[in-house]
Amino acid sequence: MKKEKKLDANGHRKFGIRDSVAYAAGDLGCNMSFALKGTMALFWTQVMGMSAWYSLLLIIVQVWDAINDPLIGSIIDADKHVYKRRNKFLQYIFIGSIGLIVGGACCFLPFPGAPVWAKFIIFIAGYVVWDAFYTIANVPYGSLLSLISNYPADRASLSAWRSIGSMVGNMLPMVILPFLIYNEDESLNGTMVFVAALVMGVLGFIFFQFMIKNTEIRVDIDTKLNEDQPKFNVFKALGNFVKNRPAVGATIAAMGMFIGMQGAATAVSVTFQIYFKNTEISGIVQLFAMIPIVLFTPLARKMVTKYGKKELSVVGSICSIIGGAGLFIITPDNVGLDLVIYILCQLVYSLGLGIYSTVSWAMMGDAIDYNEWKTGKREEGVVYSLHSFFRKLAQGVGPAVALIIMQGMGYVNNAIDPETGAEFIDVTLLSWEFAVQLRTLVAILFLVAAVMQFIGLGLIYNLDKKTLAKMNADLGRGEAPAEITEG
User: Fold this and answer.
1) CATH of domain 17-219+233-477
2) Helix/strand/coil (H, E, C) string of 309-351?
3) Residue 360: what pLDDT?
């Protein structure tokens, strides 16, 4: 006998664990592609020999990001088409998931013997293709959180589960890739990186389809209400975004988080190549640092209800500052002890990051509501796409600045491939002095990231528990009944 669906007062399936797991699968799908971005700097410097140009290339593609994110966000908001099979946000995610099957691999085409001008074209074209499809999937995915449920507790649950999806999506490549893409001498294998990117694209597509099939939209949006409003104006939208304190604060915090995650990614990877001299353990160490996030996630929903999202995230940013400061404790004459110190400080740093990351997306959902509260308009796509743009700015500029600093320290082409004649970086020839300096740079990047999170969350984001309750009351939203929010 077929089990009868439990429906709420509006005829929708009641919110439960199915919604949370499905939403987590969406970020898992995103991160199957996005997690490889940290490998791009290694691939293009150590395999393709573009150490002198990679920072410039990263900055160039940010121009595309500047056009890409707000443009796609505005297209989604302005789309009045009624899709028969699925909600319009889910339709865009479906399109993006197809493109990401090959989009990620386009960034890792292994042609080290190609001339420099051809490498420029390969990098820019590959990045544009990947970024376009990633944005098509990711912008509406982020907007979905505010449409799956109105209730703060449900959104906290979705945000926490999204963090789980993100964490798993990062952990799988983090742990498995080091065993697949490095040669025995700790050098990078370009061909295996390309193959790994294709496989991860297929896995991402599978997770996206699971999310699409199991997502229930409960917040009805009548697009006809906006038909007579003025056409989208990017400057007006940006002005509204700047006036949206929660969105600005959450964005600065997210930029800090990604400077820590992406800006330091290249430095961390090379640190394990030449300082700890063990690339295979790098994924396990980073996995170990995820333990605090795993432990905190199940507690997130109850703690949000008791203390509030802003209040918890500020405490998290302080923990990250303490962990980042501890990374400056370096014992270069005792690498074994130094690895222990590094792991312990990463645990403290990750505890703070875990507290923030489990509520970060719920905070952006509240920021979208804040925009409606203050302006009377819902602009999910625009608000989230501008948030996404600034995150991507950190994801691009952060690694570029880190790499420029590394190049000033000596991370430049130092070998020639005898078969192709192409210059590349041979990590085995880098000095121990460079390795120690790099270890310090990692500490600096993590500490700067933590301070940015504190500024964004503690000093700018203004939706504390009391203000959030008032906003929800004014918008006609409140806490969900217990039988709806379970799971």
Assistant:
1) 1.20.1250.20
2) HHHHHHHHHHHHHHHHHHCCCCCCCCHHHHHHHHHHHHHHHHH
3) 80
